[in-house]
Structure formats: structure tokens, C-alpha cells
Amino acid sequence: MAKKVGFIGLGMMGNPMSKNLLKAGFEMIVWNRTVSKMKELVDLGATPAGSAKDVAQKTEVVITMLTGSADVQQVILEKNGVIEGLRPGSVVIDMSTISPSASRDVATEVARSGANMLDAPVSGSVGTAVMGALTIMVGGDEEVFEAQRDVLAAMGKNIFYMGTHGLGSYVKLVANSIMGTYMAVIAEAMCLGAKAGVPTEKMVEALKNTGASSRVLDLKSPLVLEGNYKAQFMLKLLFKDLGLALDTAASDTVPLPIIGLVRQYYAQALVEGRGDNDFSAIAAMIEKRAGTKLSKP
Amino acid sequence: MAKKVGFIGLGMMGNPMSKNLLKAGFEMIVWNRTVSKMKELVDLGATPAGSAKDVAQKTEVVITMLTGSADVQQVILEKNGVIEGLRPGSVVIDMSTISPSASRDVATEVARSGANMLDAPVSGSVGTAVMGALTIMVGGDEEVFEAQRDVLAAMGKNIFYMGTHGLGSYVKLVANSIMGTYMAVIAEAMCLGAKAGVPTEKMVEALKNTGASSRVLDLKSPLVLEGNYKAQFMLKLLFKDLGLALDTAASDTVPLPIIGLVRQYYAQALVEGRGDNDFSAIAAMIEKRAGTKLSKP
């Protein structure tokens, strides 16, 4: 019999992720705070639930894919939340990017119901989610993780078990902090060449063959060259993640001077109204500050 | 008849580069300030010269591969330097990483002799130089560049013409500034995960499948995991390059706040005596500051 999987949070990422679970043959129960977002999934064969609690009552595995720590706490812990419907042996897989400490707090509450939680944040864009090729970093009990590999494999290609509760979230914050810094320093350094007269397109081609080579350079430089900042991963969400990294680092006494500075950069971009753009729009702010242009004429 | 190529600066990079020119069939005249470094090349069939001037008198193309701006100015412009031996139509190819302004000054002097200069700094390690697979970024007159493609192709696989004099040097500084920042932020961010208990090796494997993916992560994380900082590219040389980038940016009024901060990191590593290590030794400084360990136990 097919595993019954609940999915809460049918946004830009949750929509394709839940579709891939349906495609993989899981029996899906879905719920979304904005009810209209359930329609597409229901049309494809998912069963709509009446609340987060309802999802948990009807399934053995509940996935949450929400924006921030507060959303996850609300949907799981508050009235009519997941926790009220959990049964012993149920598993909650939170795939949102939230703070490791919030994730651990929720895991503790979930454990009180005799259920288990995994933090399993994802790396990849909407396109990667559609292809079922996300990278998933998992924290929690290893046997619980192994028992849910089939569910995770429907959404992701590269699945990594990191260790105890919260460590999936930690690695996600590490990844996004590095990615955000790559983007900012690529733009910053390229302004030096652009202002001197190096054609940006030629510069990018050369940089791809140097120590500046990175996935960010490959994927984002074409957008920067076009000045096309349509969101794949919104700048304001990266700003949120950098904040989570810095807050966590402050609790753990880990100095992060570069990431601290980089977050100020993104803060300035927010002030300039670029929050709903792709995070690569940091390049538009940086080129303006430098008095040059990275996009092709 | 084979082109006569002079090579000055037979150090860690110059040695394999000049060997590849010999292998490609060029008639080689070599010179090095430390005379003993010529022996190996002479044994392989190169002709030793008595001075930089002597090299220029006997060749049509003179390559310089030296440490810094002062070395290049000395070897090319001072007494018994290249400039005294240049003939109209000769070409000087400086492959050192020096400041774009110094490079342009030397190019102007070289032009006064009726000769031409290209700035053609390289990206890649000693291993890449041995394989003749360097990336070469070229500034100068385009026809002069095209006429020397055969010479450059003996040393490099990816050869990019960037534009007028100095622009090759600019792009090299952009590349190394980005690379040095990648390395520092990878180490900084990974300390957040490591201190929380994520095994570094697992973290690296996951990060390679996220937006943190980069050539630096691929090539340097194994060294960081081993705590093996034997120099492939010395930290003190990266520190020099970051200084060149910042000085150039100051002249050109380009703000580089991230790269400025990153250079302070490398300055601290120099104070700690890590200058002769590989630049990835910045990780050893950062993990110590964070009170954690990135290398495997």
C-alpha cells in the first residue's frame, strides 16, 4: 500500500515538490494556509485537508515547506497544528530553511507526541524542484531518515545525512551564506575590470577558467550580463538566511566577519527596493555604487 | 625556421612554462637572475644568455615571468635590461601578475623602442603549468596578440584577449580577488557547521551540490580536511595580489569592501607565519579564531 504523505506549504517550491511526490505514487493529503493554492494539486489527485492537524491525522509522514521559523512553529505547534494530529511513529519532515534552534525546539515538541522530526532543507531553484533534482541536507535520527529515503528521493537527487536534529539546517545556512558571498564578490570584483574597460562578457568567459569558477558565476553571470533580475531565489529570502546564519553564529560564538559585511550589502539592496528580485540583483546595486555597468550595452 | 623565444624568470611557474615552449619546438634563449636556475633548461637544449638585454638581442619574443611589479620594471627597464636589447618589431610578453598601471608604464617604454608589449598573466597552479593548460588573459594590441598565439598556446589552453594594455592584468586581479574571497568565506561559513558538530567531510560533500559549489571548494577542501597546507599558490602571493587589486581600485575609485576585509584576514594569516603555506591555510587561521576544527580528527 502506498505511503500516505501530507504536504503543507504549496508555494513556489512546495508546488513542484508535492507534484513529484504524487508522480512517485504516494497517496497525498495537502493543505495550504492560502486555500486556493491547493486546487492544482487536488486536480492532480491529492486529497485536500481542512487544517494542518487534519493532515497529520490522515498521514504517516507530514512535510512542511514554509518561509520562516515563525511559519513552521505556527503550522506545527499552534492550535489546529500538525502536533495535534500526530500519532506515535509519525514523522514530520520540515524542508523549510529555518534557524537550527527553532528546528530543534520543534523537534523536541514533536518527540513529546511519540513522533519524530527531520530537518531537511533543500538547495536548488524552482527549476531544480520541478526536475526532482534538489539537494537535501538532513538532520535527525538516522533510522528515521533511512525510513524516509523513498519520500525524499521523489524530490531530490543528492540527499545527505548530516547528523542530529538541526544539523541539516546548519548546513543549509552554511551553503546559502557562501552562495550569497560568491554573488556579491563576483559583482564587486568585476566592477574593477568593467570600470577599466574590460567587456563584461569576455571577462566572464575568462573568469570561468580561473579560480573564480563557481556555480554562481555559471548560473548568474548571464542574468547580470542581461540586467535580468527576475527572481529565481528572491533577494529578501537570501537576506533572511544570512540573518539566520549570523544569529546562529552569535549564539554559538562563531565570528563571521565576511558574511556580516555581505549581509549589509544585501540590506542596502533591500533599501533600494530589490528584495523581490533575484538575489543576483545585488550586482545592480554594486555596479551603481561603483559608477560602472556590468550588463552588456 | 623556428621562432626565437626568450624566457626570463625560471621559477616555480617559469620552469614548466619554458619547458613547454622547448617541447613545442621554439628556439629558446633563457636567463634568470639566480643563474643556477638556468641549468635544467640549458640541459634540455635552451641557450643561456648573459643578461636580460642579451636575451632581447637574440630573440624576437621575450617572455617575463617574475614575482612583482618591481621585478618586471627592473628586468625590463633598468641597466642591461630587456629594453636595451629590443629591436623594432620585437614583442615583450609579461606573464607576471603585476599592477595594471605598472604594466602600462612598461608598455609605453617598450613602445618607444619600436617594440610591442602584451600583458598576459596566467591563472592556474604549477600542475596546470606543467600540463601546458594555463588560462592566459591578454592585454595589448590585438594583432600583436594574434601573431603570438602560437607561443601562448604552448603554455596555455584557454587564452582570452581582453583589450588594450593592462586589461589582462585587470582580469587577473579580478580572478584572484574572487578566488581569495571564495576560500576565506568557505572556511568562515564551514566553521559555523563544524562547531555545531557537522562532520566536515560530509558537509563538504553536501556543499558541492549547492550554490557553494566552486573550483576552490573542489580543489582546496581536501587539503583543508587533511590540514595539509603545502604551497601550490603561496598565501603571501595572494596577499600581494589582493593589495594590487585594492590599490588599483583606489586609483580607479571602485569600492571593494568585501575584498578589503578579506585582505585583512590574509594579513592576519601572514602575522601568524602562514605566508609560505598555500593560501588555503587561511582556513587554519579561521578555524582557530572560531574555536573549532575543520580538519578531520
What does this molecule look like?
Two copies of one chain form a homodimer. The first copy, chain A, is of the alpha/beta class and 297 residues long. The first copy, chain A, has two domains: 4-164, NAD(P)-binding Rossmann-like Domain (Rossmann fold), CATH 3.40.50; 171-290, N-(1-d-carboxylethyl)-l-norvaline Dehydrogenase, domain 2. Chain A is 53% helix and 13% strand. Chain A is built from 15 helices and nine strands. Chain A has helices at 14-23, 39-43, 52-58, 69-77, 82-85, 100-112, 126-130, 142-147, 149-153, 167-196, 200-207, 215-226, 235-252, 257-271, 282-290; strands at 4-8, 27-31, 47-48, 61-64, 91-94, 116-119, 122-123, 134-139, 156-163. The first copy, chain A, has a six-stranded parallel β-sheet, sandwiched between helices. In chain A, strand 2 (27-31), helix 2 and strand 3 form a beta-alpha-beta unit. In chain A, helix 4 runs parallel beside helix 6 (100-112), helix 10 crosses helix 13 and helix 13 runs antiparallel to helix 14 (257-271). The longest helix of chain A is centred in the middle third of the chain and has 30 residues, at 167-196. Chain A is elongated. The N and C termini of chain A lie far apart (59 Å). The mean pLDDT of chain A is 97. The interface between A and B is large, with 69 and 69 residues.
CATH topology of the largest domain in chain A: Rossmann fold
Would you identify the CATH architecture of the largest domain in chain A?
Answer: 3-Layer(aba) Sandwich
Report the biggest beta sheet of chain A as strand number plus sense, adding barrel if it closes.
Answer: 6 strands, parallel
Are there runs of chain A of 5+ residues with pLDDT below 50, and where?
none
Beta fraction of chain A: 5-15%
CATH superfamily of the largest domain in chain A: NAD(P)-binding Rossmann-like Domain
Write down the overall geometry of chain A.
elongated
Say how many strands of chain A there are.
9
Which structural class is indicated by helix and strand composition of chain A?
alpha/beta
CATH secondary-structure class of the largest domain in chain A: Alpha Beta
Helix content of chain A: 40-55%
Report the average pLDDT across residues of chain A. 97
Helix tally of chain A equals 15
Query: For this entry, what is the oligomeric state of its chains?
Result: homodimer
Distance between the termini of chain A: 59 Å
Alpha carbon gyration radius of chain A: 20 Å
**From N to C, what is the helix and strand string of chain A?**
EHEHEHEHHEHEEHEHHEHHHHHH
Query: Which chains have the largest interface?
Result: A-B, 69 and 69 residues
